[in-house]
Design brief:
79% of the residues lie in helices and 0% in strands. It is mostly helical. The radius of gyration is 21 Å and the shape is globular. The two termini are 40 Å apart. Helix 8 runs antiparallel to helix 9. The protein has one domain. The longest helix has 30 residues.
Amino acid sequence: MVTSALNSAGSSNPFPDSRFPFPGASALARAWSVCAKDAAQELRRRIALASVFFFAATALTLVSFAIGPLGVPPQARSAVSSALLWIILFFSAATGLPRAYVREEETGTALALRKVTAAPVVLLGKTLFNFCLFLSIAAVAVPGFTILLEWNVSNPAAMALVILFAGFGLSVVSTFLSALVARASQKNVLFVVISFPLLVPLLLSAIAATVEASRGNLAVTPLRVLLAYDGAASCAAYLLVTAAWED
């Protein structure tokens, strides 16, 4: 009895959930493993990543030819350019971010992932990957936008905060909605219908903050809205992802 007690004490698992394959690993380490797995899968399927950046490049080129720096009055240029930038960022991200959970269902790995890792950990890992993907898109789209449309950002630090806050919220919501629609028959249509009302407050705040950043100002109120949105979206996704993906 003593021996069995010592053995059970020595093998105690701080994470009693049997779905955690590495008992000593933290939740963040497991989430990072999910993120690395998604990155490796996308790098092997280069066509998926290429389509995201190709869409961004195509949209930038068409906007620059259709509007250009001379086609908009100077007094309206910051507002129009800011709206166009976030339209390009949103639709470029929408070609890749919603595939976070859909990819698991299509490749047949969803059941195995449910068995070995808790749903909130999977959500965190896939959100990290989507956030990195969004930052990569922004790193290409924003400089290209400033060059092709001769758009000047007077406060780059404020613009960087807008990209970070809005990008994280967009990543969280897109990842959660991907879990919600992964097993639906009309995934793309359902994602667009659900995401529109959820992402409108984020996009409007991001556009307002971008306008102020282009004028050299730090838009405190829109940034606060973005930060509050990120917190609320993260909490809601954490609480609902188990029911959305596992049930």
